[in-house]
Design a protein that fits this description.
- There is one protein chain.
- With about 210 residues, the protein is mainly alpha-helical.
- It is built from 10 helices and no strands.
- Helix 1 packs antiparallel against helix 7, helix 4 runs antiparallel to helix 5 and helix 6 runs parallel beside helix 7.
- The longest helix is centred in the first third of the chain and has 32 residues.
- The radius of gyration is 19 Å and the shape is globular.
Amino acid sequence: QKNQKTMGFKKFWQQYKTQAKVAILLCILYFMFGVDVINAYSTILLNGGGSSSDPIKIHEIRVTNTLIGVCRMTGAIVGGSLLDKLGRRRLYLIGSCCLSCAIVCMYIGISHDVITFIQIGIWSFSFSIGMSYGVINPVYLAEILPPMGVSLMLFVNSIGSVIILFVFPLIINVPSIGMSGCVLCFLVFAILSLPFVYYKIKETKALTMDEIYN
């Protein structure tokens, strides 16, 4: 049974190596955009890496955190309605552009301690990720990979998210990096996703399984 499992993986890699590499990079991009960090540490982001006892700021943080889920859900509804109209590749590109703009807004807000910019950045980011990568990835991975490949990609995504969530609190305490440096890193990956999607993502809209795999 052990040999059969090993051979099964080898066969999978031999047959779907190109698609698997693209899928792995999609998973890496997803968590390197800072999706899990922004969801889990939005309060820290709004405080610029510190803490606040100001009642007004605490209220603003609560409102922001509440609206993150609303924006993400709204983005998913919009993305789902556009998925078959625009295609996977085009929606990925739109999402990458929107994510880059949202992260720039967050970076400006954190660098200059302007909570309004941070809020707009976080809300825009949540909407953009819900509209694009959040809704496309599950569909696209299932289209280009067999069930075994999808399971492996989910594992890669989970491991990456755990590592990012563990490392992030340590990095923001490094004086030379801080919160703004982390957000700048997210921006770099958002910008790099544009050429990756343009050159490496194959459109799967209206294609049969045989056409996609071949």
